[in-house]
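Thread: "does anyone have the structure for this chain?"

Original post by V.I.:
We have the sequence but no experimental structure in hand. Need at least a predicted one for the grant figures.
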Amino acid sequence: MPETSTKPYLLRAIYEWCTDNGYTPYLAAMVDTHTRVPREFVKDGEIVLNISFTATSGLKMDNDLIYFNARFAGVSREIVIPVPNVVAIYAKENGQGMAFDVSRAALADARPADTSEPESAPGAAPGLTAVPQPQSEPASDAGKGDDPDPPKKGGKPTLTRIK
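Reply from O.Q.:
Generated one for you, tokens below.
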């Protein structure tokens, strides 16, 4: 019998930590033909979803699938995300959480058995591409040794994935 992945257990633990501390849990996932999400909200082959108790109905986080109902533009939609597609789970308020390394090859090898009926047409899943880093303009006070971009104070927290 193959060993069960730790990923679904970690997802449930971070979700519980978020809710226990009053944070809003967000889930980022890669979208492919086995993922059932509203395609109009997919950006660069990924979707980020609020999975809090108030935003979802019937949330179930199994070892193979995460599924729930949620409203998008006032319309209730069924959401199904295979656990291997999950890229990150984190708290919206402070960005704390966990990111996972997900590759297309790993998704093909780790497909859950009960994900029949893909929702999208063949070839609809966009590929991920690297975004080039913006070219920084030379600053007039370069050479002082100061950090050109000091950390911002306040504002919306973001999740940074480091590979």
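V.I.: this helps a lot. The chain is about 10% helix and 25% strand.
O.Q.: and Confidence is low (pLDDT under 50) at residues 112-128, 138-144.
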